[in-house]
């Protein structure tokens, strides 16, 4: 009896989990084209535009880093290393799609239409940074990890109920965020309602100091979508074209009324979690970091474009200088924002003012008129 | 006019608002075909279709997030949380998200959401069904907390809540659902938010109560009237923000007050009422502000409810104590 095989071989089931998820790649780390049929879809000019998006994000990161050190920005979550993941996915979306970003997704917000000075005001802690015009389809960066996922499910259901064609909600979280209940609930609700949402997980290896392997025993994060019954895919998050193509396909699938999709991008955060004192040296080794630094999403695309003879160092320098000028102007514009007033804050709590708010507005009016 | 129970009045309000505003949506666990675990949404899906009245997966946080997202797409969500004890699952969507949205977007986005949820003791429910958690909710800036004590207010306050462009947490008392009937208008009408109601005028003492305790207080007032004691009863209706004017005006008139709640002493909102009177009405007072509340324990096991819940005799005893101070 002891040698009898159990009715279920759980070991075999475990070993098979996640086997269906092989990362999609278009161009490898040495700029070798894996999928020429994808690359040939784009002219060299288009590829240069894609590269410029990543270069823009890298420059924005470098300037934001410096401005944070000078005390000219407040909260800042570095994006270096995630340019292909962030710009590749975001540029596959339409301006009418609704972006529900997390706190590291500032470059996507800006490319979606948020003026840079508003992003800087958000970083500093000024309400003007969060005042979006009605036709800007996005919400301010979400600090509560996972909340953007359940809300994206609601936005997507709203799009479906409104009968709006060719429109999706899309949202981002990190690898750590996949452990949250709201991460699952968001995907599961969108799945149950067959709502047009694209859920993107930027797996950058770490949630502050906690490595991805400590979040879950799952081999991939993409396979978590299986629990919601929705399709998902893993993609080389250092490969702009791979992320772009996968996101574009996901968007088309969702917008066509097929229900939501989840995407896991495999990427790496080159720097700290935020500029508020996190030091990756406490939890990462140089040996681990170096291969990722060598896999910089800009390196392979720069090499490819240079080999094609459509990109040069001079062009790069010129473009970076222009971005820096734009950023300088944005800082100046942010500096001009008026000081925030308690009376205005009080007026933004409710549409119709209850007694406590009325009383406090009167109190602060007296103080502010001094 | 028709005779309606408290819960029928709620269904009435939902039906009228679903009929008059196509952006209203009713959703939650079992609110569709089943008509709600208490029949509050009975017949609504049949009348308005699955697009307007629908069931959700069993996940309160998801329901909260769904409401926020739908509001961003221009809808007027009326979600249900099956029992108030389950709000801990979705406290972020309420306290961390929808209540802050108007503020954090500088008024460029808003959340016209009305969350309905039953609560309250005396019907021997299982754990985490009857807890009075209004005190938690009352501490959230940007959120209105409303609870009716009778069928007329239930309908009028719910219509006002749904039409309001900011989030309202609408608390429905389980014991009141079918324990009383009242003549109420068939058409839509509103009862104002942020306004308490003097449900009985008096000159000797103010009993300030809400939900099931309003009726208990009225019974105490009737009893004491036979002894020549004139009791004023104030029904708060909106628990947060408080209608300070009505409370203070009543206390100014009577000079004595008791704040009454079903929640534990350390919970609820009676302490807010007492501190308001202490801060702004001390000179009106001939006696300290009394309070009636439940013991500071976890909500009791079903068989112990009767011993635990604040009853009429406790309200009467406290009223006499403050009168004789």
UniProtKB/TrEMBL annotation, chain B:
<dbReference type="InterPro" id="IPR033248">
    <property type="entry name" value="Transketolase_C"/>
</dbReference>
<feature type="domain" description="Transketolase-like pyrimidine-binding">
    <location>
        <begin position="4"/>
        <end position="179"/>
    </location>
</feature>
<dbReference type="Pfam" id="PF02779">
    <property type="entry name" value="Transket_pyr"/>
</dbReference>
<keyword id="KW-0560">Oxidoreductase</keyword>
<protein>
    <submittedName>
        <fullName>Alpha-ketoacid dehydrogenase subunit beta</fullName>
        <ecNumber>1.2.4.-</ecNumber>
    </submittedName>
</protein>
<dbReference type="GO" id="GO:0016491">
    <property type="term" value="F:oxidoreductase activity"/>
</dbReference>
<dbReference type="InterPro" id="IPR029061">
    <property type="entry name" value="THDP-binding"/>
</dbReference>
<dbReference type="Pfam" id="PF02780">
    <property type="entry name" value="Transketolase_C"/>
</dbReference>
<keyword id="KW-0786">Thiamine pyrophosphate</keyword>
<dbReference type="InterPro" id="IPR009014">
    <property type="entry name" value="Transketo_C/PFOR_II"/>
</dbReference>
<dbReference type="InterPro" id="IPR005475">
    <property type="entry name" value="Transketolase-like_Pyr-bd"/>
</dbReference>
